[in-house]
Amino acid sequence: MRPRHIAVTVALVAALSGFAPTPHPRGAGAAGAGRADRLVDSLLARMTPAEKLGQLNLISVDSDRASPAQLDSVRKGLVGGFLNLYGADATRAAQLVAVNESRLRIPLLFGFDVIHGYRTIFPIPLAEASSFDSAAVEATARGAAREASAAGVNWTFAPMVDIARDPRWGRIAEGSGEDPYLGSLLAAARVRGFQGNDLGAPDAVMATAKHFAAYGAAEGGRDYNTVDVSERTLREIYLPPFHAAVSAGVFSVMSAFDDLDGVPATANHWLLTDVLRKEWGFGGFVVSDWTSIEELEKHGIAGTRAQAGRLALEAGVDMDMVSDIYVHDLPALVERHAIPMSEVDAAVRRVLRAKVALGLFTDPYRGASAGRERATILSPEMRALARHIADESVVLLRNDSGVLPLARSAHTIAVIGPLAADGEDALGPWHTLGRGEDVVTPLAGIRERAGAGTEVLYARGCGIADADTSGFAEALAAARRADVSVLVLGEAQDMSGEAASRSSLDLPGAQERLLEEVTAAGKPVVLVVMSGRPLAIAWAAEHVPAVVQAWFLGVEAGHALADVLFGDVAPSGKLPVTIPRTVGQVPIYYDHMNTGRPGSPTDHYTSKYLDLPLGPLYPFGYGLSYTQFAYGTPRLARSVIGPRDTLAVDVDVTNTGARAGTEVAQLYVHDSVATVTRPVRQLVAFARVLIPAGGTQRVRFRVPATHLGFYDRRMRLVVEPGIYRLFAGGSSAGGAETTFEVRGGR
Ligand code: BGC
User: Fold this and answer.
1) Which of 114, 136, 286, 597 is the most exposed place for a label (fewest CB within 10 A)?
2) Could you tell me if residue 366 is left (phi over 0), alpha (psi between -120 and 50 degrees) or otherwise beta?
3) In CATH, which superfamily holds the domain spanning 629-742?
4) Where residue 20 falls among pLDDT bands split at 50, 70, 90?
């Protein structure tokens, strides 16, 4: 693959994300940048080759402290940073050695996977994406940065911005779902949240866009597996969130584990240098993933560790996470000039610049202290933030005969299921320092909200993944006694996340049977699905009156669920990912091509499955509220625009129900005739709007024509003239439609 069309691509993604491409220490200004360069130059001039390679060495701890041997390496200047070392005291102890006892006194980086919270665990990223609320997502990243930085962490391995279209892949939980536009907006929001306005501020942490790139396209949804996507798919689907993160000023990028079109991402010069640096102008540094340099041997493109290290460095990986190759195997190559010193210097320069930008040369501890930790961690403000976004992350999938919100007349509520009373699971994967005891469980949240006048029964019913049905009788007895049952079912927190691929999307263990038997008891049932991926809940979608997709909502899970179930909050979440009917439909996503024979239930020779209805169980963008919304036909200021113009669209959204509600109004386009096949729909804009009962809100969308751009047959980014269909609605299916024309240019 080759580098392409720098200017146009930058313009497109800058337009997509709305931010200028500025990967430099913000707030530093030209004078600050000059000072930083002078400091870095003077250090480089004094460093030995071993010290240089030491700056590129990222090591992990085995306990809560750096070991004596590791501190000795710090003393010798052989460590650039630690990962998994956290806490104001533990980081200070290691930093003291670096700045007092190493020859050049270069401070350390402290990296940690603060993915959806440090101690205050927010909803998993896939859940947060359901809010379609980039301001709220930015706020939780900010909150996570404040907690982590108080505890001495200065670098997070987040945001994870991999587009994922295969729910078998457990890491779908860590990202923003299937759509590149939503994924790009949230990638930029999280970078802003983590890094703040000024990376040098004591409550900012350096962000990492990961895993570069296309890791989410692992074949068969099996983690770490091979990726083979076309350059068009790569550029249009998988790369935009990375570009948006770069445009938002992200300081580091992590290379992925996968091999992509025959070249592992960690040794992929085209990806890490030609695209990332030369096309996009990324000025930060690239860190490998955990032992991904060493794994180049297993990939079969390096015969020795030294060769693996050389391939990675030459491709553009600046920092070696845990392989220990840069510091152990590269010195010999540098000495015999098999690796030019200029390449090492370039990598060291990037790492040192990040340290300067973090303010580490001014205050290597960045004000972290046990006192600050105590004041920040799990503070009421953090909990409020967690509850707010959890409220917005709940997606109501079905609500027949108004089972929800729970009626005041429900005097007895049965809360049933293996996930109802467990705090750990509600935290989801990558929950960092989150603790089960910090969590308001669904049962606790329901009990608290139900109050004294309502009896809340609880029965676990069954385990999460085993076949034991001995708890069914108790659960059924509770369901029969109650006016309504709330079943909290789904996956354990470690059934998604890294190395947690599943070949089935069904409710695990005996849970499906429990659901069916409780439903058959004849009383109203609400199913709450807690999971790190979309589950194929086809039976529930047909037979259970109310279905709520809750993902993993974090420490405030129970409060947020109670807010929604009791109607204190009208649900407003929308699916950031398609829910399939069965695993056999995977991959399934809304912005697919039309094919020459689009599926038709009546025409045999069309694209479909013999044993399934057409389409997904629930489409991308879908989600109900306790009221309904009607969409007027989109009205255009001008129905003909040029390729550099902006389309101005007004859509009247009416709340036709009896209570106020928030709708995520969505705008999609379809390019009717193009030089290459185009998706049936693409999300180009959305807005969260609160509309009073009976009210009509005019939603103004502005869509730069560059949003319509795509890669043509010669892989040039173009906006083609022609007729486009425009849809406005509450999901990627249906909606009110009009057309517009792009005239002129290519
Ligand atoms: C994961 C990364 C993570 C790193 C450090 C790897 O196994 O793929 O996402 O940042 O470990 O913990």
Assistant:
1) 597
2) left
3) Immunoglobulins (2.60.40.10)
4) very low
